[in-house]
Amino acid sequence: MSGPDDPGRPRPLDDRPTDCDRHPGVGTSVGPSSKRASAVNPLDAIPQARTLVTSGASPIPPSDQPARLDALEAAVRARSALVPAVGIVLGSGLGGLADDLDDPVAIPFAELPGWPAATAPGHAGRLLLGHLADTPVVMLQGRFHVYEGNDPGLVVQPVLLFARLGARVVLLTNAAGGVDPGYGPGTLMVIADHLNLTGRTPLLGPNADAIGPRFQDLTDAWSPRLRAALRAAGAAEGVTLAEGIYAGLLGPQYETPAEVRMLRTRGADADGMSTVLECIAARWAGLEVCGVSLVTNAGAGYSGVPLTHEEVLAAGAEAGPRLARVIRRFVADLPAAAPGA
Is the pTM higher than 0.70? Predict the structure, then answer.
């Protein structure tokens, strides 16, 4: 579930539902939806990219990604020539951050080749390009989840597109449940490592050597350099940041108390239904990765009461603006990408 957006500036074009699940993107619009610059579908120029684009559940092996990314890149370039330095996946409570984009261009998912409209409640479902803290960025406003019936290859296409557009750094955010009993609602946790318990990988099938190697090392999947930069941004903004391990689960059901205890014994500090596949794909594509989880509720069994949507919304409303401040400072102060990242 997620918290409501930061009130920010008026958004007259935003008539989407405000209900959210625990792992959405923000539900705020950024500027008016612009009309397509051309009636020519980029897929017409790249017939291979039409293969299996009608269903998010259709298998997308790594070898299919280059043609699909060709079509996606062409569709974005028909709207914007901006070359981003940083890609950001917006999680819960970051509506104010999206509103801070200068000269934004917003492209609905459904207008990008092969991408279905977002279906998870509270997901605006847009790709955004603009400047944040004078830095060119690309943002994902909402995301695809495996629990929606999507293939992992579709779930990770946005971060692969970030790389195609020129980004070298990606920041992944999410709303999460607290597995560490000390990580209560409102905790902001820099992700130090992850447990992929989804039973899925975006690298299954024939490889695309043009994107990345067949066997991907994940020793430092979550960049120590960027984690230090996030901690420095938090200190500069007076925002406390924890650090821990994120467990990625399939969902959409929440965990049982026994499962939360199991996750804790495995070393998890927070858990959710996104992020881990995106990290794997981003590292495969050579992106340097960091992430922050916004803990919206204690794990099942800790509080003695059922998990509620209202609890999650309240935590997101309180912590979202703090995380937005940290991200703005992180982007403003970010040094050049590490060589070979």
Answer: yes
